[in-house]
């Protein structure tokens, strides 16, 4: 394939968007709806909430911590075979989980095996999508990630119905069949060659460069804090509502309302990210701050109408921050290093994904309710938004659709990694 000077901003890229749409649904839609299984597993294994929370947390952490492996394999072999192999692993993990007789089995099957499959699917696909778009990158990312909102809207009541009909084991067996469709999504990916690729070097050179890139490291730290609190409602909101004497179907409906709002937020944020001049990081800081505030207010709400309003607010802002979070990274590191950069960011922020839900469950076990859990989750997001202010050109009014000569920077990195100010601008 002849290298292109610039991303095509369309063409086969829209098929990559379609693939990413279904992949985001089959990965994070399942994770976001895991709260339905959470309540059932606590009762089935008679374990504390903190221990059961580790199932989803290990899956999220392995998906993110293993992302550099998926990125490195995609750089060498292309994203198509890597994603197809990941789909098989994800489906196999859910299949084995339906046969589990202890929490350890669920840690290994859903957490480790399915998590490894998700690591090989999501990050390579999103990196491939970022290489196909430049001017319309935020919109394309927002459209792709609407799969999370749509699937969360559909999966929460669907999984609740499956559990009531076939019990949690039969429901996990059907989730395994759904996950197998990741193989078909991987077949849609077509690698794209850009002229800057040979200059940016291999995975080792890119990794070394990124580890000396100050803004990239600060951005990774911010996303780690954001990730610590981001998934808390999708793991524990249903249990919180049942503590307030909500029936399971009504609680699942509230999650579906949040998912619809999430969907609207992703599309709106994707459009704004391309339409509003200036750094995309400012939009990310705005959405992150509003998400943290809405999270912290959840324990205060008691009336159904107030809880519904908070669910709409949280769904919109948490959905809105996702596409711009992916769009900020190419502005910092360039499209030539997007595979390695995205994989490394996902690995670092896995710390937050690993600790967030168990910390929330532990606080619930200690205090007897989820008040402190949601307040702490909101505080993590607010801390992450504060770090985003330190990114380069945050206060600039000029558009930053292209980073400063990062290709030249990559060449300089091969010569010396000790130059002053490497990548600071």
From TrEMBL:
TM segment ranges: 12-31, 82-100, 106-127, 139-160, 166-189, 216-237, 249-268, 280-300, 306-326, 338-359, 371-394
Key words of the record: Cell membrane, Golgi apparatus, Membrane, Symport, Transmembrane, Transmembrane helix, Transport
Keyword Cell membrane: yes
Compartmental location: Cell membrane; Golgi apparatus membrane
Membrane topology reported for the UniProt record: Multi-pass membrane protein
Principal cellular location given in the protein's record: membrane
Signal peptide: none
GO cellular component, one term: Golgi membrane
GO MF assignments: monocarboxylic acid transmembrane transporter activity; symporter activity
Major facilitator superfamily (MFS) profile domain residues: 13-396
InterPro entries cross-referenced by the UniProt entry: MFS, MFS_dom, MFS_MCT_13, MFS_trans_sf, Proton-linked_MCT
Source organism, top-level taxon: Eukaryota
General function of this protein: Proton-linked monocarboxylate transporter. May catalyze the transport of monocarboxylates across the plasma membrane.
Family stated for the protein in its record: Belongs to the major facilitator superfamily. Monocarboxylate porter (TC 2.A.1.13) family.
Listed name of the protein: Monocarboxylate transporter 13
Organism of provenance: Leptonychotes weddellii
Gene name of this polypeptide: SLC16A13
